[in-house]
Amino acid sequence: MEADIKIANGMVLTMDPHLTLHQKADVLIKDSKIIEIADGSSTKAKKTINAGGKLVMPGLINCHTHAAMTMFRGIADDMPLDVWWNNFIFPLEKKYLSPDFVRTGASLAALEMIRSGTTAFADMYFFEDAAAEVLKTIGIRAFLGEAVLDFPSPDSANADEALKKIEQLNEKWGKDPIIHPMIAPHAPYSCGPENLTKCRQLSEKLGLPMHIHLSETASEVAQIKLKYGLSPVEHLEKIGILCGQLIAAHCVHLSKVEMDLLKKYDVKIVHCQESNMKLASGSAPVVEMQDLGLTVGLGTDGAASNNNLDMFDEMDAAAKVHKLVRNDPTVMDAKTVLKMATTDAARVMLQENKIGSIEFGKTADIIILDLNRPHLTPLYNVYSHLVYSAGGSEVNTVIINGKLIMEDRLILTVDEQEIIDDANRIARRIQDELRA
Question: What domains lie within the chain, and their CATH numbers?
């Protein structure tokens, strides 16, 4: 049998349950799957990539972002979340969002993520069908959640229209190998009990995960308590939203009772360290959640509140901040944090049997890093280097769903400069109108 791709002679970090590390091995791919991991494999391949002196590892998974918000990067910084959202982002979205805007912004995000080693990401935004079209062409794995709100959004007059769009998105893309529809009720403060219940019902009907912001700020918690007499997590439990299909982003302000509830219902958590720091939202009790056995992945949040989509940066920040907060250098060790961006992230996305590690039969979402760099020399501990030393610029080659997407830092599927030029053209128009 001839393989499609052979990655030869690389150091292979599998992230399998035993954290197997091959000092030198070949990884063979056929029909999108990993079919062999062995030293000196005799299997032939149509394409051979020499990974000598390089690290072969699973692609990183960004569990929470708003891809097209790359177009608002740096437009409104250094302000509270409510001011940032109400005075800047929401008015800009209302004025500028369109299918073409989202195509450009999502394309720009995909290029940034691929270049920094992210092979899959979870999105919550608008015009997700338009995003799906360009993301499919680029070749990145995307979990796309059409946002559901109680009030009109840029692409839906009401929540029912947004839910209808989700059904249409699922009908069109539900069987695609790299485009995965989701349901995205925005947050408990922006999506009331009636519409949250509709989201849960649609989730059960279509078998799709739900993706929500939860307990991101102290003001959000206070608002929900004032309105419903319960914390956000307790409120979601009361109306029947907590479940194993729910992916909750942020979870900064949680009590022990709330964490126990999230564990009881097997809710998946996404920690967005850099966004939480930049918006001063607070420090999420990640260590406590992990100690309880909750599954916690990492996300960058959108580029308007981070301001990049580099998961290596996210790992570094998450590992260091919690050591500081807890005054304990042993928490959030490098292996734990790397798992949060790979295997644990795959569990968050309900894809643990398909992606997140390099194992026989799993889908080939793989990145290759150049280790021949001064800041990565000498190499004593690969986990430490990946979390504390490496950056996205070390990513040399990216394979997604068994397809070569970037080789030797060259994007192979689209014209990168054309996308950058288009983004700059839109940005100039926005800037001119803001100055007027």
Answer: 3-58+363-411 (2.30.40.10), 60-348 (3.20.20.140)
